[in-house]
Specification:
heterodimer; A: alpha/beta; Rossmann fold; B: Nucleotidyltransferase, domain 5; five-stranded mixed β-sheet; 10 strands
Chain lengths: ~375, ~260
């Protein structure tokens, strides 16, 4: 199904593998690397310190047995996989990391970071548990300042406001470029399959030159747009338009999103981590206090670790309209308490908007591929 | 007269029905699925031909987990859609909640105006499915239907483990303790009923009528226990195990070019 799509899609898909060599080069040239896990990590602060952030989120079940030597079986596969890569030395990114940056997001990750701290230098940023009131912003801003001081001492660098502003401008530009690509999918029919869009967004994280990443995503967007205007229609106009929400899905993409698109649906919008949720807010680079502006930007991410998670509900409502969504598919990872519980509200929100809703709970194994695909197919039959 | 064939290749049994254009049930067949869905499909083809309904000549839809292994089917539809539509044909009503306790999964399906509106299923676990019952019946050296009948006479015992493997050990220790067979049978059915009922409550909103389909619908005690647990009468009829096949046959009505 990728035949008629621009070749650069494949390039993004391979970015994760190719990135290994780039990271090695960065290290050989004396650069520093920070392993990160979450969209709450304040990237512009790492950029300013001259540290290259790289995502360590585990996406394969290969390392789960190694992780289960220390972690309970009934724990989120992303946490187990990530820890397994670190403990079994199988991930070059973890290996090359000078520092791991984690946040107090979900309980599973929080406690896993304690164990990870035994293997790697790990810095934990404390997130507030909710976003209401000024206290949360003050608390998180203080955390970011503490982080800046830590980096300055540890790596003997100076993070000036001017440099932070500049880093935020670049990150904002990248966010805007990613959004432009995602927003193309609002067209009917969308110009690409969601699977390819997702792989592209994921691959961008393994491109370590920000300007290069921005240029690449812009040229892909321009090409998709040009192909579309020239009449190319890789997706059927009858394909049911699905909004995907829930947990990070890098590790389950094939048995969920690909299966959905093979059965005749199309993922027009990803609300989850690598999608719009953490990309649509910009840092106010002209704000008087740039650190607070960065803090404000990250705090507005609608993640289920926050209580209540009103931002996610508000965004969802907006996206259902913008992308003319026919159905909502929530993909949750097994034992992810925040998202599995919050699915109650998402179902309610979808129903209130008159949009059918399907929740899938899965892990990184292949055992439930058939069941998931039947459910997705049945869901598409409902939408007929 | 036009005829329509529906074939439901489930994980345990394969069910086949033929409907006429008035949706009257003319023929129903059931056989064990065995290890090869394709062989089962070919055996069904032979039986249908002997009865005078050639699936190559008539509109035919396959469903169930083995649906892709029916070479002569005109199209496939998922068992979720088929069970919903089949149950609506059997039980009627504008709004219907269908509980299908299948061999490897349990589905709760909400049907409105004959069409599926929503569904929930068990996640990667055999608790509350036909498989759970089968394993326990095996441990008690009973046939599944005999276990259900026996359960009515028991009480006072429960199985707390939701995992089939651990629940089996629990049953074995109950046997070892000298617990009466009917009490253990009661505990087994009670465990399934509670799990299925809590799943059914996930589909909120007015349930309309509630009906039971799938292999367990002929077990009167399961239906009675579910009625008590859900505080509403659960309907069931002997054709309930054919709901998936009936739904498939109904889906065959939209296939053009075979009947004239």
């Amino acid at each position: 199904m990728t035949q008629s799509l621009p070749e650069s899609f494949a390039e993004f898909g391979e970015a994760r593998q190719k990135g290994f060599l780039r990271v090695k080069e960065i290290k050989e040239q004396g650069g520093k690397v920070a392993g990160v896990f979450c969209t709450f990590t304040p990237l512009e602060i790492l950029d300013t310190a001259g540290i290259t952030p790289v995502s360590l989120c585990g996406m394969s079940d290969e390392t789960i047995p190694a992780a289960e030597a220390h972690l309970p079986k009934n724990l989120c596969p992303l946490i187990k996989s990530s820890y397994g890569f670190a403990v079994s030395d199988k991930c070059p990114y973890t290996y090359f990391s000078d520092l791991i940056v984690g946040e107090t997001t979900c309980d599973g990750k929080k406690k896993m970071y304690e164990l990870l701290g035994k293997l790697k230098d790990t810095y934990i940023l404390h997130l507030p548990q909710g976003i209401a009131g000024d206290d949360a912003l003050e608390f998180w801003t203080r955390e970011l300042r503490r982080f800046i001081t830590y980096l300055e001492d540890r790596f003997q660098v100076r993070l000036t406001d001017a440099a932070l502003r500049q880093a935020a401008r670049v990150r904002n530009e990248e966010r805007a470029a990613r959004l432009e690509l995602m927003e193309l999918q609002a067209l009917t029919p969308p110009p690409a399959f969601g699977y390819d869009i997702y792989k592209t967004l994921e691959g961008l994280g393994f491109c370590f030159d920000r300007q290069e990443a921005i240029d690449k995503v812009r040229s892909l967007t321009a090409q998709l747009r040009a192909d579309y205007d020239a009449g190319k229609r890789p997706v059927s106009p009858h394909a049911k338009r699905i909004l995907v929400t829930g947990c990070p899905i890098g590790g389950v993409l094939d048995k969920t999103v690909r299966a959905l698109e093979e059965k005749g649906g199309v993922a027009v919008c990803f609300e989850n981590c690598s999608g719009i949720k953490a990309m649509h807010q910009m840092v106010d680079t002209e704000a008087e206090d740039i650190v607070q502006a960065i803090a404000r930007r990250y705090l507005s991410i609608g993640c289920a670790v926050m209580t209540p998670d009103s931002r996610r509900m508000a965004l969802l409502k907006e996206l259902l309209q913008t992308f003319r969504v026919d159905g909502v598919v929530e993909i949750d990872l097994q034992a992810c308490t925040p998202y599995c519980v919050e699915s109650f509200w998402i179902r309610q929100a979808a129903e209130a908007a008159g949009v059918p809703y399907l929740a899938l709970e899965t892990d990184y194994s292949q055992a439930d591929g058939g069941q998931l695909s039947t459910r997705l197919e049945a869901f598409l039959e409902i939408l007929e | 007269m036009n005829y329509y064939i529906g074939i439901d290749i489930g994980s345990t049994c394969a069910k086949t029905v033929v409907l006429d254009e008035n949706k009257t049930l003319l023929l129903h067949l059931v056989q064990p699925t065995g290890w090869s869905s394709v062989d089962t499909a070919l055996a069904i083809q032979r039986e249908l031909r002997e009865a005078g309904f050639d699936p190559e000549q008539l509109p035919c839809v396959a469903t169930g987990y083995g649906r892709i292994s029916v070479p002569f089917a005109d199209k496939t539809v998922t068992e979720i859609t088929c069970h919903g539509r089949g149950a609506a044909l059997l039980h009627g009503g504008e709004e219907l909640t269908v509980i299908d306790i299948g061999g490897q999964d349990t589905k709760i399906i909400r049907v409105e105006g004959g069409m599926v509106k929503d569904f929930v299923m068990n996640d990667k676990c055999s608790a509350g499915t036909g498989r759970f019952l089968e394993v326990m019946a095996n441990t008690l050296a009973l046939r599944p239907d005999a276990l259900c009948d026996l359960a009515r006479r028991g009480g006072g015992t429960s199985i707390s483990s939701m995992c089939t493997v651990f629940a089996e050990s629990e049953v074995i220790s109950l046997i070892g303790r000298g617990e009466k067979k009917e009490n253990i049978a009661y505990a087994v059915v009670d465990s399934i009923v509670k799990k299925v009922a809590s799943q059914a409550r996930r589909l909120e909103g007015s349930p309309g009528r509630v009906c039971l389909t799938g292999g367990l619908c002929s077990c009167a005690y399961v239906r009675d226990a579910l009625s008590i647990e859900l505080r509403t009468e659960v309907a069931a009829c002997p054709e309930g195990r054919y709901a998936g096949a009936l739904g498939a046959a109904l889906s065959a009505f939209s296939i053009r070019g075979k009947n004239v």
